Amino acid sequence: MEPVVQCVDLWKIYHTGKVEVPALRGVNMEVREGEFVAIMGPSGCGKSTLLYVLGGLTPPSSGRVLVDGNDLGEMSDGERTLLRRRKIGFVFQRFNLLPTLTAYGNIAIAQHIQGDGFDPHRFELTVELLGLKERLHHRPGELSGGEQQRVAIARAVVTDPKLVLADEPTGNLDSQNSEAVLAMLKELNSELGQTLILITHNPEVAAHADRILHMRDGCTLDSAAHSAPPQHTHELIIPE
Ligand code: ADP
C-alpha cells in the first residue's frame, strides 16, 4: 500500500530579513494509510512547521514531501490549497470554530468548502461517533472546551479526508476532556481507519498513538543524521 505521507530529506528554512532559520533540517519519514502517529519533541524543534508543510500551508524549501502521492514541492499555492480542501483535515489547539455558527453549521461548512456538497450519511456518522447529536444547535460559546474540540474534530473528519493533522489537540483541555478527546481520535482511527498525525510535546498524549516519532532540532530522530543544508546566501540561525 502506498504511504499517505512520505518525506525525503525535507528542509524548511524561514527567511526573516537577512537571517535564515532552518526549522526542518532533513526530515525523513513515512506514514501509511490507517496509521495513528504522534510526532513528539520539545518546543521549537519544528513540529508545527512540519505540520504546516504536510498540510500544504507553506511550501518546503528543498527535499520531497508527498501527500497521497502528490508532490507538494512541485505544486503552486492554488494547487496546494485544493489538495488541502479535498484531502486534509486540521484540528487545532484553540479549536478555531466560527463563533456565529452553531455546531451543525461549523461541521457542515467543511463539506461545502470541500466542494462535493452536503453528504448527510457521512455527517450523521461523524456526529454519532463524536457524541454530538444533542449539541448540534449550540454555538461554540455555549459549549465546553471538550465539546468544542469534538466539534472541531467532526469538522476535520466529516469530509472523509485522506489525512488528519492535529496540532496539540488537547493543549487547551483539562485532563478529563483530554482523555475523552484522545479516546475519540483513537476511535476514529480504529472505526473509520482514519489516518492521523498528531503533534505534541507531552509524552502522555503521544502514548495514545500507535507509533511515536521523536523530533529534535528540525529532524526526526529515527531519520539519518543531518544532511548538508541547501545553498545559503544569508546568515544561518540554528534553533536551540
Ligand atoms: P515547535 O512546533 O516544535 O514549537 P516550530 O515549528 O514552531 O516548532 O518552530 C521551529 C523553529 O522555527 C523555531 O526556531 C521557531 O522560532 C522558528 N519559526 C517558526 N515559525 C517561523 C516563522 N514564521 N518565521 C521565522 N522563524 C520561524
Helix/strand-derived category reads: alpha/beta
CATH topology: Rossmann fold
Biggest β-sheet: strands ordered side by side in the sheet? 6-7-8-3-9-10
What is the average per-residue confidence, as pLDDT, rounded to a whole number?
A: 91
Q: What's the main sheet like?
A: 6 strands, mixed
What's the overall geometry?
globular
Distance between the termini: 37 Å
Give the count of helical stretches: 7
Oligomer: single chain
Order of helices and strands: EEEHEEHEHHHEHEHEEE
Helix content: 25-40%
**Any idea how many domains?**
1
Low-confidence stretches: none
Number of strands: 11
Which radius of gyration do the C-alpha atoms yield? 18 Å
CATH class: Alpha Beta
Small ligands present: adenosine-5'-diphosphate
Give the CATH H-level superfamily: P-loop containing nucleotide triphosphate hydrolases
Q: Please report which band the strand proportion falls in: under 5%, 5-15%, 15-25%, 25-35%, 35-45% or over 45%.
A: 25-35%
> Under the CATH scheme, which architecture would be assigned?
3-Layer(aba) Sandwich
Architecture blueprint of SSEs:
Blueprint: E1 3-16, E2 19-32, E3 36-40, H1 47-54, E4 62-67, E5 70-71, H2 77-87, E6 88-91, H3 103-114, H4 120-129, H5 145-157, E7 163-167, H6 175-192, E8 196-200, H7 203-206, E9 211-216, E10 219-220, E11 235-236
Parallel strand pairs: 2-11, 3-8, 3-9, 6-7, 7-8
Antiparallel strand pairs: 1-2, 1-4, 4-5, 9-10
Helix pairs in contact: 3-5, 5-6
Short description:
The chain is built from 7 helices and 11 strands. With 240 residues, it is an alpha/beta fold. The longest helix is centred in the last third of the chain and has 18 residues, at 175-192.
